[in-house]
Amino acid sequence: MKALEKFGEYVILMLRTLTIPERWSVFFRQTLKEIYKLGVDSLWIVIFISIFIGSVITIQVSLNIQSPLIPDFTVGYIAREVILLEFSSTIMCLILAGKVGSNIASELGTMRVTEQIDALEIMGVNSANYLILPKLVSFILFIPVLVIISMFFGILGGYLIAFTTDMITVAKYEYGIRYWFAPHYIGYSIIKSMVFAFLIVSISSFFGYHVKGGALQVGKASTNSVVMSSVLILTFDLIMTHLMLTK
Description:
Blueprint: H1 2-17, H2 24-39, H3 43-64, H4 74-113, H5 116-122, H6 127-164, H7 170-178, H8 184-209, H9 215-245
Helix pairs in contact: 1-6, 2-6, 3-4, 3-6, 4-6, 4-7, 4-8, 4-9, 6-7, 6-8, 8-9
């Protein structure tokens, strides 16, 4: 029953959030700030992790398929498929749930315990719409940029391994990257990531917005938001993969 009650509170909060902004100029200004804070500030971690994960995937695939029956270009092919289908969407969003989700939950939780949200409500402002909607819109709009950048640098990481080691030649790696390429995989990953972005922001906002207590409860809300976001990302990943890729 408690889980059902929490779900009801989440739905009510989202209904309050997903309404037309009262002042569009304020909404656009807040959205631009959130794009920079949630999206642009996450670029460095996306690039750093993507390069190293792309490199690791290439090394591991190369070491595990050393067989005269398997062509060398398969290394590039498998690395591309893993990066495009899972890493740059699902795994990257799990990582961003820790960075972005905890940031949002902590920010809103601090505003709640310091009674800033209560002050907005007293002034007649829809605090959920004013505080959460710009975060929601900005992260959903910017997540495709992060996914594309992650794909590029992940494949680049594999290229660097091919260029600096003798595990695979650059020509065979490049051929594997191009071999039997399905463009719709990029669209599939972007759609998944946008759903995950909604889950990250909405769940983190829910835990932060409903904090009761002090600093200890803010930290607990931040942790709970990351855990719940991660669980739902993996759940929706399974559902969406089945719906969008299986025939």
